[in-house]
Structure formats: C-alpha cells, structure tokens
Amino acid sequence: MDPDVAYERAELLKAFSHPTRLQILDELRKGTRCVTDMEDILPVTQVNISQHLTVLRNARLVDFAQDGALRCYYVSRPKLVGGVLDLLSAGHPVIRKTKEQIDREKAGSPKEKVSSRG
Amino acid sequence: MDPDVAYERAELLKAFSHPTRLQILDELRKGTRCVTDMEDILPVTQVNISQHLTVLRNARLVDFAQDGALRCYYVSRPKLVGGVLDLLSAGHPVIRKTKEQIDREKAGSPKEKVSSRG
DNA sequence: GTGTAACATTAGAATGTTCTTATCTTACAA
DNA sequence: TTGTAAGATAAGAACATTCTAATGTTACAC
Description:
2 copies of one chain form a homodimer. Chain A has helices at residues 3-16, 19-30, 35-41, 46-58, 78-89, 99-108; strands spanning 62-67, 70-75.
C-alpha cells in the first residue's frame, strides 16, 4: 500500500475514531438532525458537538443544508459510514493459529495445490 | 448508541487509524509475516514496527505464532480487518442534499407512503 | 434596531499519541 | 560462553487531539 494512500485512509479513519463522533454518525444515519437535536441526545456541550461536526465535515462524512437558523446535518457518504458502523456492530471472533497451521498454509498456497479434494 | 459501546468501538477504530498500521494490516492480509519482513517493506525502524504491532495486538486485530527466534504475525480478525480495508479502498461518492430534498424525505418516511408507485 | 435562538470560532490548558534512543530478552550457532 | 539475529520494552521529547471558557455570527421575531 502506497504511503500517501495509507496516510489519507488513516486520516479518514481518525475522523470516525471518537466516541462522540460515532454517536453523531449513528444518530445521523437514522435521519437528518440539527445541532440542538443532538444536544438533547448526547451528554456533551453544544460547542463540543459543533467541533466534532467540523471534524466530520472536513472528512466529508457529513454535510448540512441550511434551514433558516437551523443546520440540517446528514451523512454525505452513506455507504462508507453505514459500512463502517455495521462492521463495528457485527461480532468478529478472534482466531488463533499455530506455527503448524501457518506452515501448512505456506505449503499449500504458493502452488495452489491441486491434489487435495480436487 | 450506548456511550460505553461507542467508546469501545472508537478504541478499536483508533487501532486502525495510523498509516503504518494500515500498511502492516494490508501486508498481513496477504499472508503471515515476521517483523523483519515488514522492515524490508516499510520505511520505519524495527522498534517502531514492534510498537505498532503491540497496538494492533492489544486491539486483537493481529496475533503471532512463535517460530524459533521468529514471530509469525497474522490477522486474527480477518473479516473485520478485510472489511475495513475493503471499504477504504472502494470509491464512495459524496452526496449533497438540499433543504427541499430533506423536507420531502421527512414527509415520506414517517408514514411509509403507500400511494406512490404502489 | 433589539433580543434571542442556533450554531461556529478562537485560544489555551489538559491529555493522549508517536517517535527516538538506549537497553533488554530470547533463540540459536560456533 | 560468546556472538549475533530477531524482536520487545522503557523513558521521554515532540507532536496532535480534545475539552473548556469566552466570544462571534446569523436568522428572525418583535
């Protein structure tokens, strides 16, 4: 993976990587919300919500439409945001491998062993 | 989303959120690697790779099997790691909404309007 | 124009992460 | 048992993120 690409992707993931921002994204996934809606739900200050929304906006994960004095925030990359949130909420069992398993994998994969089962 | 759950998920995402760690995960996805293999590929010191591997191990994203003096590292939650890396490499167009679109969505969704097309 | 509700911005202290340098452990071969 | 290759750990400086407190902006009703 190219270092520049890796950097860019890490920056994107960093925008997700905060409890409050995950909660904001999860809430916005249900529908458009303005800042005061979020104040009612999240145990943090308005200023702090605004700051986190700025981070999310810079990462192009959310955007807003102005409605008078209100700002209607929405998720601007639904498949990305939904994909990440869904992955996080799914169960992912931790696997373990022994040296022997690894050796067998190494022996099998390089030549795509045709003999076993095929 | 429960704040404790949000915290836990943010911690998990933080383990992904570093260029070097993404590169390590991408490399390990191709197969088991020891630390010196990674030294050859990544433009960082052995110490630094070790430190990043510790972060990944604490997050239960990787583990290793000892082979003499070598440590064979592998991805221990392949679906999670693969899912995140695949999402990142896919193209995710940024959508925009106007206030009018949002108003229409709000009007349609609450009652799951049956009249249009059905 | 004045007041106010909704939201953003700024500055800085507090906190957390990352990298560097030095040191340590372990496995193994001579 | 000495040397060396593989890898981990510790301490701290450098850097980045987060939160708090104060202030700024905008839209609108009166």
